[in-house]
Write a structure and sequence with these properties.
With 205 residues, the protein is mostly helical. The chain is built from nine helices and four strands; from the N terminus they run αααββαββααααα. The strands form two sheets. Strands 1-2 form a two-stranded antiparallel ribbon. Helix 5 packs antiparallel against helix 6, helix 5 packs antiparallel against helix 8 and helix 7 runs antiparallel to helix 8. It is flat, with a radius of gyration of 19 Å.
Length: 205
Amino acid sequence: MIAITNIDFLVAIGLAAGLAKSEKVSAALSGLMAYAAMHLATALILKIVYGDPSKTEIVFEGVKKTVKDVFGLKIRFGVLSFQYSAFGGMLAGLLGYTIHKYTYKLKFPEVLSFFGEPKFFPVASTLAGWVFGLGLGYIWVYISKGLTYSGNSLQKLGAFSPFLYYSLNRALIPFGLHQVLNFFFITHQLEHNELILMVIKLLVF
């Protein structure tokens, strides 16, 4: 249960460390820092737009609700933010890995050498995560609606949905991306599709 509840942290850390070919610990830290910065940036946007999301009320489907309830906000890193879940963890992990890949051999002048190489990319990942989080905070509502719509649409397909999932899974195996598909199906709105979950269990376990 603890692993499922914190799947976003695990994915952000594990993906960055798993993709890195060296300095894996620093790469893992980069993924985590990028994820933290994403949430802090999102919290800032929510505060600017809505003030206190836990108290500010808006009309949703004809009923007054708090912003926190409408958007399903959750406390992450001590602030109220969107529930990015494993999808957000993947984005942060990939961002942390990319920053790590291009900066872990970066050399600074001797005066600034202390900040070079492994010490630099967690800082760079934090800055990149902050910028990325500012943009993601504005469009996440639409992404979330898209994920929900995808899940609901697949459920309406009935027995065809496992076939579609299985075909996508087989097609992605040569590229090593099938586990990304599994994360998407298990940890988002698609998790309630029992037929797909049955196929996943047969393939994974």
